[in-house]
Amino acid sequence: MEFIIKASLLLISIYYVAARAVPDDGCWYSCPQVYDPICGAENDKNSTQVFGNECIMEVHNTCFETAYIRTDLNNCEEIDDAETLPNPEDFYFNH
């Protein structure tokens, strides 16, 4: 009986923490931690941006209401090597 009570309390605690981890605005996604840089182009604004992978670009589009589409990596401006290193925060959007 004691085991059932402890297990129940543990499950309730896990549910409570998980429910609080998702923000109210609904923009929470996780992307694979694979660094495979792509170039995204937003034609109506004539802008390009390098993303860590395609998932990150799609999440960016969803969370920030942008319309980047994948294009050849050579279409993006040259960027410093330090800027191309993946930032762990780029794999999670909590907007």
What is this structure, in a nutshell?
The chain is α+β, with helices and mostly antiparallel strands and 95 residues long. It is 37% helix and 20% strand.
List the helices and strands and how they pair.
Elements: H1 2-21, E1 28-30, E2 38-42, E3 47-51, H2 54-64, E4 69-71, H3 81-84, E5 92-94
Antiparallel strand pairs: 1-5, 2-3, 2-4
What does this entry look like structurally?
The protein is α+β, with helices and mostly antiparallel strands. It has a domain at 29-94: Wheat Germ Agglutinin (Isolectin 2), domain 1. The chain is 37% helix and 20% strand. It has helices spanning 2-21, 54-64, 81-84, and strands at 28-30, 38-42, 47-51, 69-71, 92-94. It has a three-stranded antiparallel β-sheet with strand order 3-2-4. Strand 2 and strand 3 form a beta hairpin. The longest helix has 20 residues, at 2-21. The protein is elongated. The N and C termini lie far apart (43 Å). Mean pLDDT is 71; it is low at 13-23 and 80-85.
